[in-house]
Amino acid sequence: MAAKLYDNHGREINYVRMAVTDRCNLRCFYCMPAEGIDYVPRKELLSYEEMHRLMQVLSQMGITKLRLTGGEPFIRRDIMDFLAAVSKLGLEQINITTNGTLTAPLVPELKKLGIHSINLSLDTLDKDRFYEITRRNEFDKVMHTMDELLRYGIKTKVNAVVMENKNTEDLIPLAELARHQPIDVRFIEEMPFNGAGSHYPVLAWNHRHILDHLRQHYPEIERLPDPPSSTSANYRVPGFKGKIGIIAAFSRTFCGTCNRIRITPQGMLKTCLYDEGIFNVRSLMRAGATNEQMRDAFLDALNHRAKDGWEAERNRNFGSPVSESMSTIGG
Ligand code: SF4
After folding, report:
1. Considering the chain, what is the average pLDDT of its residues?
2. 205 lines ligand 1 (CB under 6 A)
């Protein structure tokens, strides 16, 4: 009988988002300052052996779904060997979130490894605005990655952060990707994980505003039932091959069915995106902890979990505001 994992609010926990690095080759302004961030010294990053051991322990506890994130995961050397190793752990799904700048040449191998889906972070289809947002000239490579993912039939979702005065004119061109391609396009509320803290007293482009904007262009847009624990509210425009999703990541409307935990590049467990980290599993492992002791530490953390992202943010030390770069968490 497969193990099942629950938190203190009765939510089943079966999904881990593991950030394999904090390094990134883009400088998206909503994630980090132009000069970048102080990266974690390499020896403080989880090693592949440690990440593999972690996935063995977590998969025996009931985790069935893994998403690799970053920074940019494909920046880390030998990532494909690690993917080959974890793909033998019997997980139901292995998914990856990438900015697509380095991915295209790897797509055939990702297909062979049976990667379940790829989330492509892409906030605009305009080359100049891409440069403005990411501060890098990598647009063509990202579009090539999208073509390769479609060519190899890997389930692809495009994630676009909606930013006032930056890319709101891109919402419809991005949504149109789903008309002709089996791509799900998801629009994400901007979050304060930008290395500087929130600069919006009120989020103008929240999930309601995004939906209103889409409805103006697609009055026939239909609400779809949400898969269990979905962060995305899903819609379909009749005739479109892909779905449209809205992720209220700042408004935190979906915490009631949250099924995920996060492991940061340096091994910090986060039981909520908005907390400051519960304990460092890398330190536990390097201190000689047994798998049993790691198990107990995870169970204890899940027994003291915030009920939602607002409570998690309030529980931060001294109510310190969220300001860390998303590149240090993994999204
Ligand atoms: S904000 Fe926290 S509790 Fe809510 S869905 Fe995200 S991780 Fe889960």
Report:
1. 95
2. no
Q: Which atom of ligand 1 is nearest to the CA of 271?
A: 7
- Of the pLDDT bands very low, low, confident and very high (cuts 50, 70, 90), residue 146 is very high
Identify whether the C-beta of residue 297 lies closer than 8 Å to the C-beta of residue 9.
Answer: no
254 CA closest ligand 1 atom index: 5
pLDDT > 70: percent of the chain: 97
Instruction: Please give the CATH number for the structural domain made up of 15-329.
Output: 3.20.20.70
What is d(CA 178, CA 201) in angstroms, rounded to the nearest whole number?
32
Residue nearest to atom 5 of ligand 1 (CA): 255
| Atom of ligand 1 at shortest range from CA of 262 | 7
What are the sequence ranges of the domains in the chain?
15-329
Radius of gyration from C-alpha coordinates of the chain: 19
